[in-house]
From TrEMBL:
GO terms for molecular function: ATP binding; hydrolase activity; metal ion binding; nuclease activity; RNA binding; RNA helicase activity. This is CRISPR-associated endonuclease/helicase Cas3. Residues 6-224 form the HD Cas3-type domain. GO terms for biological process: defense response to virus. CDD domains: Cas3''_I (cd09641), DEXHc_cas3 (cd17930). It comes from Pelotomaculum propionicicum. Keywords: Antiviral defense, ATP-binding, Helicase, Hydrolase, Metal-binding, Nuclease, Nucleotide-binding.
Amino acid sequence: MTERVNSHPHLFLSEHIEQINKALHGICNWHSQETVTPSIENTLQKLVLLHDVGKGTTAFQDYIKNPAEYRGATNEKSHTTLSLIFTLAKAIDENWDELETFILAAAARGHHGRLPTIPESKFDGVSCPEWDIDNFAGGEKARLIKKQLNMVNYSGLTKETGLDLKTVSQLIANDNFSRLLTKLKKFLTNNINLKLLSLSEREAVNFRLKAQLIYSVFLEADKAFLAVSEPAHYLKREARHWQVRWIDQYIGSPPDTKTNRLRLKVRGDVLKVVEQNKTDRVYSLTAPTGSGKTLLAATWAFRLREIIASLPAAPPKIIIVLPFLSIIDQTIKEYKKLLQTGGYEADGAWLLTSHSLSDRNYAEWLEKEDEPFFVDTWRSELVITTYDQFLMNLMDPRAKYQMRFHSLCDALIVMDEVQSLPCKLWQPLESILNSLSITCNSRILLMSATLPPFVKNAIPLLPAYEKYFSQFKRYKFLFRLKDKLSIEKFKEELEKRLPIWIEGKKRVLITLNTRKCARIIRDTLVDSIMEGHNLPVYFISADVTPLDRLKTIEKIKEGKPCFVVSTQCIEAGVDIDMDLVIRDFAPLDSLVQIAGRCNRDGKKERCQVEIIDLVDEDENRYSEMIYDPVHLQVTRELIKDIMELPEENVLDLSNRYFNQLFDKKDTGRVHLKRFARWQEDLPVHELLRGKEHRQYTFLVIEEDPSLQEDMDKANSVADRWKRREAWRRLAGRIAMVSVSIYANPHFQPQQIANEHWGHWLLREGYYSSDRGLLVEGTVAIL
């Protein structure tokens, strides 16, 4: 009697295969037949059978029956490379398509880690080192493979999978191992690599996304029944229908102001374009700051979703992508209000947030142990996330991100504030997003008040958007850049102007480029105002915890006279309305963003946005400590002869700014090539945020008094997977009370904090909700 093959301690391999196939059915309910085609389904079926055949060794079987007691060699129980060997052997034996074989080989080899990368020399037509999908052909690795192949229970694997493995077994039986490896290596080099090389760049990007789709769907299916206790909840999708009429009901009859009339007109134009262009894939929305882009995006997504759902297709998932955590909170509130307008309470099935501050709760009706998997796989009708998460799911080869890639397929994706994307992502994103819209049947909306030029061939939701910009006359720029302004002179100026602002009950925003500079100006205002006046001074910077920043923004939104001192963390999307803005010099897109906080609702006469050129005591510009020199140079050249600029003329200047950046900056050609050709590249986070300097993160534990005790409880959980999930559930709370600093090389965090389970708990006296971190003289920060 043939001995059975286990895939897990409690499962035979055939049972695991059966569970994966059931999970695939549940996943496909979220997708259209245009995306998960019969060809893709066929490839998935092969992968289901092949991915774990490497578990058929006696070493792995000894391990899996009692993992805690296994005493054999760790490398002998490994299985992914062996699964790769069987996959290639089957492909040669049955004459499979080379590109399909590459997908199968990559997924089988990388389903516990990541997709492979190919050294650049593979595409240079020269001999090169082995890459991480064919590093089995020599030395110790080859000897290990030979040993494992001699341990395989071939008849047991055939019984569990139905696969005919006689080619491999006969070669091993005839002691032709070297012939087998040579055959597989030659197939990789002469067939698969050459086929990949023959693809055009556009074809290569399309192929990579197809591979990621298959890999992603399989990764979720492979884990599903192991991660959920109630498969019935997982398998069944009960679609929730967001309705465009909720937006009409929510808006109601707003006050009859010029700004509100323009907002209603813009929304009507957007709906008209959606009805006329139902089948288009990539849209753009260029609209003035304050025109209500959150609800305009919802209008586009909800109406398109209704149109698609009326066809024989699954309703597409909606994904809202935002650049900053500071604006996610207010966006979530807007969508929750829309749900409430429709008579529903938000749970994870309706609305899910995915970022470092989000909790990991899904729904009260779901078992607690099932929630992590539903959250991690974005099993929701509408997801609000960050650019970091979105781009890692789109481009990062690691399995933990790729498992969510298929959620970007058959989706309506709103990318807000796209001007915040660095230039080196322009070319990669133009190509990859176009491919995502075609290969994966998604529709994409790119939004900004100032749209970068990489957005080509998009259908504009406001074809005549220029006329809307010309009607907004809320502010004018006043460029005070003829002379540099020292921080001391600026302090003196503020002290002179304060009485006028106080008497006029003004709301003044001062935005500066460094934390240190912002702290100095904040303290100056507080000291001056305390002499007989009672107006609040609010401080918003990265020195302040996210919890305190959100509380402060809510206070500012009350609309009372106040002074706000901030760093650039406030400039994009934070919905506040100020009478006067003073901004230290920055790239033009940042200046335009901060101007959007000035007279936002247009209820006052035209207000001023003053741009100054601050320097420190050594005549060093603060702007040059923070921003890219090319962005600064282009901005200075554009405005060098301009003293004043009204809002209605900003659009033309912004277009010239982005066009010059496109000509002068690296727009990411090499990163597009590396993505298309499966080459190793910089981490996605580094492409998005730049290379991070050494920094330390501290928890202001008094802002969440029970957090330390809950950290102790999380760390005491015996099972390592449950312990990891317990920590993940605390991640949002930890992030909410965290502050990070860039410190000098001699700084030691224990000077101001105590270590606790790998986190630094800030000691009392080093933080104030009003001033943030109080570490002057202890560390060097910007």
